[in-house]
Amino acid sequence: MSQNGRLTFRKSLNLADSSALIIGSMIGSGIFIVSADMSCTPGSPGWLLVAGLIIVVIGIPVYYIWRWFNK
Fold this sequence. Notes:
Layout: H1 15-40, H2 46-69
């Protein structure tokens, strides 16, 4: 906190912040790698569409819960 009672932000990353950033990047890139592998395997492309639909059905409520908590 600064002298006038307002919060101030530091432009720095500690070890935990850096680790979380790297882990999040690895998980995020893994999503695209796995979906690319799934689409290249022989078989019905319907499974990829079903998986995408499941992700959308789960993702929409998570988004609304996030918006509700961040009001």
